[in-house]
Every structure is written in C-alpha cells, then in structure tokens.
C-alpha cells in the first residue's frame, strides 16, 4: 500500500508532537485530526522516529482512498508488516486465517474463519508487546475499509497496555472514525493551522520569498500543503512573466493549489457548495444576503460548511472563508453559466448600489455602452469613498464592457484604473491596466501615467523597475510636469533601493526645477520634501529651511500621496526631535484624511509613525494596536511586508514578547533583502539587535548592529536621530568585553549629535557611556552619569529610555556590590515599565528572590559575555591566571581585569564560589 504524496509540512508542529507524545504516555491512545494538508503525516513520522529511537516495535498502516472499497485490505496490509517470528506461536486455525488473508485479501470472504482472524490479530499484538513496547500507527484512518475497522476495533479492546495506538485521520465534519477504534475518552488532538511566522519559515525552507508569507497565510488559512502549493504557483507565474513574484500579485489557484483546495472543499455536501459559491462571489457575504439571493437554507448549509472547517459564521451572520483560496477555487471550478447566474442573483440581493453594478457587470460578458458608464460612475463613487482598489477593479471592468467604437473612453478608463491600482498598491491590477494601455494607440502622456502607476504600486520593491523608469523618461520628453513626476520616482528609488541619499537629493532637485518650469506646484512641494528628507539624513543644517519652503507651497492632495507630502515629513522630524505631543497631534489629524484618500500606503505610514510615537511616549498598548492595524492593512492591501514586520517587531520588543519581536524582525530582514529595500533592512536589523542585547546575546547583538552600522555608512546617514542604533551597539560592545571600541564609537557619534542639537540621542549615548565607565573601573562616575541621564529622560518625557537607564544603573550598582541602591534602581525601572505596559522589560527589571545568592536573576544584559564565560569555565576547572592567558591568547593583566568583572557580575569572591555559581546558573 503506497504512501500518499505530501509536502514538508513539519514547520510549527514542535508543540503538537509533544502533545501527542504526552497523550500516548498518559492514555496509551491518541487521535490526531485535521483537514487535508494540515501536516498530520509529518507529526506521525516524528512520533514514529522517536519511538524507533527508543527501540519500540512500530507497526504502520497508511491506506489510500481506493482501499476503503476493498474488504479487509487494510488488515491484510497491517499483518503483512508483522515480523514472521510473531506468528510462530499462533494456533493452526489462527495461522491459517492470517495466511489466507495475506495471500487472498481480495478473495471471497465466505470461507474464512473471521473469529480466528480476530483472535490472531490480538495474539500477534500481545506477542509483540511481550518483547518490546509496541506503537501501532494508523495514518489516513478515514480510508480504512469497514471490515478492517471492525477487526481493529475488536483487537484494540483486548490489547495489553504495552500497545500504544496513534490514529491520524482527515476530519472535515462528523464523528472521527478513530474514536470507536481507540475507545471512549481518547484524547483528540486537532492539528492547528500555521501562524504567519510559521508560513514564512515554511516558504523560506522551500526557497520561496518570505515577503509573500502574509498573503499566502491569508490565502491558505495556515494549511501548510495549500500554502506551499500557492507559493509554488505564484513563483511559476512570476517565472512565466520573467520577473520576481510580487507581494501584491493575485495568488493563482491552479494546478496543485487547486487540487488541495478541492480536497478541502470536498468535505461540504453538494447543496452546501452551491451556497458557498454564492458566498465566494459576494464581496461581504452574510446569511441574510445569501437567503435573499435564493438560498433559503443558507444557515443550515453554512453550519455544515463550518463543521467542515471551510467557513466561520459570525454572530451577526457574516460569513468568512477559513482560507482565501477557497472562494477562488469555488469560482474557478464553477462554469460560466453558474457564475453568471450567481452574480445576477446577488445583483438583485445586495443593498450597496456599487456592488449591485459590479455584480451586473460580472453577470454578462458582452460590451454594453450604458453598463460601462454605470460601472465608471461606480468607480468614481469608490474613489470618493477611499476604496481605490475596488475602483481599479471596476475601471478594468468598465473598459472591458466598453464597445469598440468608443476607443477613447476605453483608454481613459484603463488609465484611470491603472492610477487607482497604483494608488492602492495593487501591482497585479496596475500591470494589467498598463499592459492594456500600452497595447493601444495611447498618447505619450497616457503611457507615462500608466507606467508611473506600475512604479507606485511596487511599494518598496523599486529595484527591478529600471526599464519601466527608462521608458517613462523617454515618453515624458518635452513635458516638464511629466518629467518631474518621473524624476520624483527616481529620487525615491535612489533612497529606498540604492541607499544613496546624495543621488536621491540630486534627482529631487531636478524634479523640482522641472515642476517649477511646468507650473506644477504640488510636484515642486514634493520635490522639496525629498530634498529636505535627504538633507536630514545627510546632516544638512539647511534641511529645515527646505522643508519650510515646501510647507509654504500648496499641500499635495491626491497626485502622489500624503506619505510624500511636506506635512508628513514635518511629523517625522518632530518624532526625530522627540516632539512627541506635536507629532501625535498632527498624526491624529492626518489619519482620517489618508483613510479618505484610499491610499493603503499612506494609511500604513501614518500608523507606522503613530506606533513609533506611542512607543517613545511610553504607551505600549496603544502602539501595539496601531502596529496590528498596520500589519493587517499590509496583508489585506498586498503592500510590501518589510516595513510592517519592522513596526510589529518594535511594538513587540517594547510591549509584547522578545521572542515574537525577534521573529518579526527576522522576517522583516528577509523581506527587505528580497526587495532590495536598504532603508527597512537597517531598521529590521536594528530591531533584532535590540532584542539580542536585551536578552543577553551580546555577541549576536554586536554582529547584528555592526551590520546596521555598515548599512548606515553605505547610505551616508549622518544624523543619528533617525535610527538610534549607536547606543545599542556601544552597550553590546561593552557587554562583549570591548569597552574601548565602545568608547571610540560613543565619542565620534556624540560630537555629531551635540553639533546637530539631538538631545535625546545624546542622553542615549550617555547611558551607554555610563556602562562604559563602569567597565573601565570608574564606577562612581558611571553612577553619577546614569542618575543624571535618567533625570534627563524624565524631563524629555521618554519613559522607556528612562527605565532602560535605571536598569543600567542597577547593573552598575550591583557590580560594585551596593545591593540596596541596585534594588532601588530595579524597583524604579519596574514601575516605569509597568506604567508603560512594557511587559518584557518589566520582566527584566524583576528583583531577584531573597536568598538567590550567586544564581540570582539579574537583567539579561548583565550576564557573562562569551569571552567571560570561556575564562570563567577555565578558572573554575582549576586553571591559573597564567594558564588561562596562554590558552585564550590574552595577557595575564587582561585575564585579571576580566576575572574581576566576572566576580562582580556573579557576586562571588573566590574560585570555589565561581565554580558553584556556574553550576547553579
């Protein structure tokens, strides 16, 4: 009996494997259930491998779909795998029954001794259990034939405790067949869907881009087999286009992906599938809508689909598919007449005029002048509502329904659709509309507008658009306004993809001159904004004057987005300057404004800045809420995921979980590398380095933050207020036993920060300088500086920075064995973090329990460095200072100084106490 085909779906199932093992240990039976492709077979294989490593006897049975129609086929396959020695002790009739079954599984059953066969199976299992523990594994139990099921049910009731049984089956509703096999009360363990992090890991493991993880997670519902199938389909579609897979591309539910989706949908009865098709065609399906559209039993049919884990029905009657690929597969498998009838029924049932027009358009496939005009009006309504993605879809529909003799109107609708798609970040729709524009006799202006839409929809992934930009520049020749628009995109690309603020500033200057020549004050303001942004990066004191000049021009409303407007850059500068109240006030004005425009990227940018403002202001709960909205928006709109994962990493690092923060940061790094986004690559690396520093992984933090330093140097970033990594790198260097290097870094950056008037940056540098002074033996100066720095952060109203400074103060006080001041500083830090909702930092500031001694818990950054650990181990094993120096290639003086620091950190006074402390730790 062949094993079924499967993909590597073991990612994310570590805890599940442990749960199965616990159930088998406690009950001797376990039932593993889940939909097709959930990863049950991989879990089973892991459990089997563990049992075999313990020298248990493992019997495996994995029937195929065809086996369920062959009587006793599975029983024959199971007995065929039993070692011959286990059959020697059987009585004659039992051996005969088994021999007949093994030789003639498909022969008539009338002449067989079925009682002897059942007793034989019991005796075989008992004989095996007498020698070694036995694990009986039944995978794909849903395909057991009825006769084998009866036989196994009888045998398993009489087996000794030495026989453990694991049954895995695909259950999409109804009672699992494994329950009667295993008996009442068997633990039923459901395979949960993968989270977005786990989907990202799965994709990377299979060589697929991590930046697709958010959308694939949404489309697959966390089903690993479906996720991989979708990832491969998307990669193949991109290869066919001779370009890389884009994060906003429509997910092609074809080939293997459609087969997986079909298997999932097979769990719903035929009548329920008709209701599901209507739900798939509707934009916002509800039970009442489906009833009005001709499905009177919608509630009962959806309940069946919900039991099959295909949909979730809300208390308000809303219907949501568990995997986004399911409605696509339903629509694709339905014929045109069925889809057209469904859209016609929905057109009569919906209460939104825009959706009614959309359904009417999708119910026909012939040109219709009046319908095309209706659709165009509906697209305009969507634009006013801020629903630019829907406007793009409707614009394409309007063009398709436009008769051929209205070529001018068709072209205008295509250009408008392209611009709507660019505005909403829908790269797939932008490419489709632009391809149609370029295939027609379009003017250079229309061709440029369409090409610019493709650039705008690309998000952070501008690195692969050189050819599009070159064509746009060529077609814009002779039109200063169009040339200015292209130059602006070039400026953005130089910053994001090339990491070159000088070239970006120069391109912006050219854009500004062209815009002024063409009388386009909006483009001129945006060009000045880019110049001001690059000037700030480069440490140009004149950047604020350039920004003021941009603010004096008319505010850009729709052409290129709020994220590129001087008003938004003013908010960013306020954030950099720690003017948090001013920044927050302006962002709260901008948020409803950008939501009205329908630009997903603009909304994301405002949410990103709100997250950063709330974090620095010590409001972690509010920051986390903004970060979640930003991540949801990114996935829903198909935006570049790198920035959203960075924002999520920072929110988690301050107010959630260091482990989750590290996961988000790593995904942000992967996505930014894939999209050649230098700006957010630096930011995600900074977030990861911060977590590594906080959790005591000093050597890793140094390596990560050095990458940030290299990237920032390559991008010619001078102003240290934009990304504040310098203090973290210095702290990591100190923890990694390199205080001299840290001191040099701090001195050089401090000079720049003081010269630019960046007081918050200077305070963060002083915190690191206090730790540096302590490491260099000047504890009194360190304490004085850290106390003063904590007060400065209080004045600046930066509570989390103050809390981190108090943690550093506690570390220094503990090193010089002043326990009372150390405890006071820890308590003060804990209070600050607790008020801010900074859960992981509150845990770091938890005081050691009384009597913990040398093994007491201290803040993670105070633990031994790798270099200190190597020395401590050598000394605790009896090495003298001279011997340790020789083995570690150090001077004796360095060993003595380092050993002093180790003693201070662990609060020990002798080598014997050091050995005890290391054993305790």
From TrEMBL:
The record, for SUPFAM superfamilies, names: C-terminal effector domain of the bipartite response regulators, P-loop containing nucleoside triphosphate hydrolases, TPR-like
CDD domains recorded for this chain? LuxR_C_like
Q: Which UniProt keywords apply?
A: ATP-binding, Nucleotide-binding
Q: Which Pfam families match?
A: AAA_16, GerE
Has UniProt tagged this entry with the keyword ATP-binding?
Answer: yes
Superkingdom of the organism of origin: Bacteria
Q: InterPro entries annotated for this entry?
A: AAA_16, P-loop_NTPase, Sig_transdc_resp-reg_C-effctor, TPR-like_helical_dom_sf, Tscrpt_reg_LuxR_C, WH-like_DNA-bd_sf
Q: Does the keyword Nucleotide-binding apply?
A: yes
Q: Which residues form the HTH luxR-type domain?
A: 857-921
Q: What is this protein called?
A: AAA family ATPase
- Which species? Streptomyces virginiae
Source organism lineage?
Bacteria, Bacillati, Actinomycetota, Actinomycetes, Kitasatosporales
């Amino acid at each position: 009996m062949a094993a079924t085909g499967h993909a590597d779906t073991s990612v994310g199932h570590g805890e599940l494997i442990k749960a199965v093992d616990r159930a088998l240990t406690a009950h001797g039976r376990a039932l593993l259930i889940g939909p097709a492709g959930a990863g049950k077979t991989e879990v089973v294989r892991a459990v089997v491998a563990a049992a075999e490593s313990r020298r248990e006897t493992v019997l495996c049975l994995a029937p195929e779909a065809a086996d369920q129609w062959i009587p006793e086929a599975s029983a024959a396959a199971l007995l065929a795998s039993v070692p011959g020695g286990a059959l020697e002790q059987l009585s004659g009739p039992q051996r005969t029954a088994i021999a007949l079954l093994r030789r003639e599984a498909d022969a008539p059953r009338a002449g067989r001794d079925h009682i002897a066969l059942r007793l034989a199976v019991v005796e075989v299992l008992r004989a095996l259990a007498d020698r070694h523990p036995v694990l009986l594994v039944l995978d794909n139990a849903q395909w057991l034939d009825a006769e084998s099921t009866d036989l196994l049910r009888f045998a398993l009731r009489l087996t000794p405790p030495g026989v453990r049984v694991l049954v895995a089956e695909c259950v999409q509703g109804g009672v699992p067949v494994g329950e009667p096999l295993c008996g009442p009360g068997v633990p039923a363990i459901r395979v949960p869907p993968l989270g977005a992090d786990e989907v990202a890991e799965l994709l990377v493991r299979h060589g697929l881009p991590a930046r697709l993880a958010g959308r694939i997670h949404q489309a697959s519902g966390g089903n690993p087999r479906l996720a991989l199938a979708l990832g491969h389909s998307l990669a193949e579609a991109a290869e066919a286009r001779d370009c890389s897979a884009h994060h906003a591309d429509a997910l092609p539910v074809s080939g293997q992906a459609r087969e997986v989706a079909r298997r999932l949908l097979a769990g719903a009865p035929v009548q329920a599938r008709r209701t599901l098709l209507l739900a798939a065609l509707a934009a916002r399906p509800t039970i009442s809508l489906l009833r009005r559209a001709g499905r009177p039993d919608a509630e009962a049919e959806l309940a069946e689909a919900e039991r099959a884990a295909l949909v979730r029905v809300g208390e308000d009657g809303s219907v949501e598919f568990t995997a986004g690929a399911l409605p696509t597969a339903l629509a694709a498998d339905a014929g045109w007449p069925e889809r057209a009838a469904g859209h016609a029924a929905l057109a009569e049932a919906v209460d939104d005029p825009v959706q009614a027009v959309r359904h009417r358009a999708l119910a026909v496939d012939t040109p219709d002048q009046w319908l095309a005009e209706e659709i165009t009006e509906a697209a305009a309504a969507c634009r006013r509502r801020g629903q630019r993605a829907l406007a793009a879809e409707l614009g394409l529909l309007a063009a398709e329904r436009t008769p051929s003799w209205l070529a001018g109107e068709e072209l205008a609708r295509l250009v408008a659709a392209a611009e709507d798609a660019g505005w909403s970040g829908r790269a797939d729709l932008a490419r489709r509309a632009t391809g149609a524009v370029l295939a027609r006799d379009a003017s250079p202006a229309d061709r440029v507008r369409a090409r610019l839409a493709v650039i705008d929809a690309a998000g952070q992934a501008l690195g692969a658009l050189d050819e599009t930009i070159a064509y746009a520049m060529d077609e814009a020749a002779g039109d200063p306004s169009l040339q200015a628009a292209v130059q602006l995109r070039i400026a953005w690309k130089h910053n994001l993809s090339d990491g070159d603020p000088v070239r970006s500033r120069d391109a912006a200057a050219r854009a500004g001159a062209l815009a002024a020549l063409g009388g386009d004050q909006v483009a001129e303001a945006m060009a000045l904004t880019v110049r001001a942004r690059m000037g700030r990066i480069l440490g140009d004191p004149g950047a604020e004057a350039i920004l003021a000049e941009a603010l004096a021009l008319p505010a850009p409303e729709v052409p290129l987005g709020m994220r590129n407007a001087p008003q938004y850059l003013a908010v960013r500068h306020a954030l950099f300057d720690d003017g948090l109240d001013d920044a927050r006030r302006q962002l709260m004005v901008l948020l409803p404004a950008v939501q009205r425009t329908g630009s997903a990227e603009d909304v994301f940018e405002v949410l990103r800045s709100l997250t950063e403002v709330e974090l620095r202001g010590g409001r972690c709960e509010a920051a986390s809420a903004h970060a979640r909205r930003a991540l949801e928006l990114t996935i829903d709109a198909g935006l570049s995921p790198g920035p959203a994962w960075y924002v999520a990493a920072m929110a988690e690092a301050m107010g959630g979980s260091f482990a989750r923060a590290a996961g988000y940061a790593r995904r942000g790094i992967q996505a930014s590398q894939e999209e050649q986004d230098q700006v957010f690559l630096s930011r995600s690396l900074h977030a990861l380095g911060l977590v590594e520093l906080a959790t005591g992984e000093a050597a890793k933090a140094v390596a990560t933050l050095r990458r940030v330093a290299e990237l920032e140097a390559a991008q010619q970033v001078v102003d240290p207020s934009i990304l504040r990594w310098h203090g973290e790198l210095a702290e990591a260097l100190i923890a990694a036993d390199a205080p001299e290097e840290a001191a040099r870094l701090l001195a050089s950056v401090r000079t720049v920060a003081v010269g630019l008037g960046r007081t918050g940056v200077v305070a963060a540098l002083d915190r690191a300088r206090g730790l540096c002074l302590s490491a260099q033996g000047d504890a009194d100066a360190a304490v004085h500086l850290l106390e003063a720095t904590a007060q400065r952060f209080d004045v600046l109203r930066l509570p989390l920075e103050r809390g981190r400074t108090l943690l550093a103060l506690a570390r220094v006080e503990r090193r010089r064995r002043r326990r009372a001041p150390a405890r006071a500083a820890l308590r003060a830090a804990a209070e600050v973090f607790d008020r801010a909702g900074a859960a992981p930092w509150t845990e770091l500031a938890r005081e050691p329990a009384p009597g913990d001694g040398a093994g007491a818990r201290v803040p993670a950054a105070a633990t031994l460095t790798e270099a200190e650990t190597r020395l401590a181990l050598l000394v605790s094993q009896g090495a003298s200072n001279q011997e340790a120096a020789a083995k570690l290639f150090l001077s004796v003086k360095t060993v003595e100084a380092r050993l002093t620091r180790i003693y201070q950190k662990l609060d020990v006074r002798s080598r014997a106490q050091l050995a005890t402390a290391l054993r305790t730790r």
